[in-house]
Amino acid sequence: xxxxxxxxxxxxxxxxxxxxxxxxxxxxxxxxxxxxxxxxxxxxxxxxxxxxxxxxxxxxxxxxxxxxxxxxxxxxxxxxxxxxxxxxxxxxxxxxxxxxxxxxxxxxxxxxxxxxxxxxxxxxxxxxxxxxxxxxxxxxxxxxxxxxxxxxxxxxxxxxxxxxxxxxxxxxxxxxxxxxxxxxxxxxxxxxxxxxxxxxxxxxxxxxxxxxxxxxxxxxxxxxxxxxxxxxxxxxxxxxxxxxxxxxxxxxxxxxxxxxxx
Length: 262
Known about the structure:
The structure is a single chain. By secondary structure, the protein is of the alpha/beta class. The protein has a single domain, classed as ANL, N-terminal domain (Rossmann fold). The chain has helices at 9-17, 38-56, 72-83, 152-155, 187-198, 202-205, 220-231, 248-256; strands at residues 22-27, 33-37, 63-67, 87-91, 102-108, 127-131, 149-151, 174-177, 185-186, 210-212, 235-239, 259-261. The two termini are 14 Å apart.
């Protein structure tokens, strides 16, 4: 759909900034629908990148560990981390945990607002960050957040709408590590690796304006698929609701969004 593929994630986000078209469409299991235009998604990414730098003192090359439950705010965290040059490591709470060397550990509160398991054991030198679920959340619901845990929704909105970093991430700097692997994919391989996933799909997607990227976990493959769809100029449809090809209600959603399945 868009043959001008950006050379890096910061340049991809630059392209989103000038677009009023949908870039991310979220369907939550509770029936919530959230639509972010390219401009609005860029705004979330910029605010998050500034939060990382201003409040957590993160620098290029630092590692952000992220609980891998699918949510649109988690995607904003990933894109922001890449924009400011950090690396992302997804963590399956059932079989993994934060590691020494992680500088931030980010987890999604459960539906009742309780802290996620990934934040139970945060290594020394790392900051715990909790994301809330509802679109209009101004802070985590439930018990007050401990002073050692940064409440993302309460803090992010006060940060600047434009990220002030001027340098591209180091091309060979670490960017993405999947669970169970030792090495990181470097920043200059993110978009090429994403492009490899869609090389034989663009023709089949035709005039679809959106692509549903399925997955029960926000793992490395899902993130690369999301990058591929955004780089191609289509909107990403994400959901944490149970849905598959046999789900009539989900087929109706895809038809409404003029979306195809990845």
